[in-house]
Amino acid sequence: MSSKWLSLEEALSKALEAACPINETEMVTLFEANGRILAQDAIATLDVPPWDNSAMDGYAVNSSALADNSTVAVQGVITAGMEATTPLTTNSAFKIMTGAPVPPNADAVVMIENTSAEGGSVTIEQLPKSGENIRRRANDIAVDDVLIKQGTLLKAEHLMLLSSQGKNAVEVYRKLKVGVVATGSELAAPGTERLATQIFESNRVGISSILHGEHVDIIDFGIVEDNEASLRTLFTQAVSQVDVMISSGGVSVGDADYVKDIISELGNIDFWKIAVKPGKPFALGSINGTLFCGLPGNPVSSFVTAKLLVVPIIQKMQGQKAQPAPLYINAKITRDLKRRAGRRDFQRATMSQDAKGEWHVTPFKKQSSGVMTSITAANCLMVIHESISSLNEGDVVPVMPLYS
Questions:
Q1: Residues 77 and 115 occupy one common structural domain
Q2: CA nearest 75: which of 40, 103, 116, 109?
């Protein structure tokens, strides 16, 4: 077990290296597939468009047989969902609607604005070039094209594309099973009576809510007191039920912080200290193939490390090929700031945009990691590099929006 303080990048690299993707898959309907991870490349089985079709309302003509201001007979009307029953004849035109198949012998479509119709004939005031205003067969998608790559997080646009190919189900990786537990004799479950020396526990619901958007199955193991036997029993039983076990509390250096020692005894701990604030005591390990993430007990520290480290771990384990990097925006700090250098600092702050489109950020003066109101009042985390000990009003700093 390494006691070295790791940078955020080192910790994330080690965590992702340890996060082995699951292999099991299942078929789900497209209506159930939003937010799931595609398990196999989706291959096109249909050309799109399936035939040459009109790009607009107008008249289908053979441009080689006509000139500007030619007047021709209207041979018929073709609307979307139907096709011409006969090929286009010389010196004729088919009135055609957007998306309708272009009739045989036609090589262009005249915009309706460039025509004038009277009775059963139409005058072509501006003759189009061959191929103009026609969408060619397979111009968008050809049979055997890769529509969506394996490992893609499926969203509405992907599902619409699959549906347009006639698919009503898709193969995805099964949902990851994630266990959540809070440790600490000082914790009481919300909705129960608490002792005068206890506080209500809040980390499990926070972690579960953060992971809700990753479409995992959460198993709540409740609260376990600071007792070696109880913790050992809990972790021994839990690892057979989940792919990832996430605990909060018990990973620091206090006399009652047993979690990392028990994980090390039952399996292994890769690291447990990272140079970030809040969130220094974050432990990563495993027991019998189940990945273990030990988050700090302080609510803000738990919240920040869940977003920075746990979410990317979950995304990789679910088979997502590209884990999106956090969004950072450059903003000007609105006041001077001094701090102790050495750790990357994620300070709770508010950001706003002025009339010129420039972003400004104001960090809270109180940055306690035990006070969740600093998160509920913030709309971003202001990031201060570990080497920086002071900032002046107007300095540009990166900020991470908390809400989209």
A1: yes
A2: 103
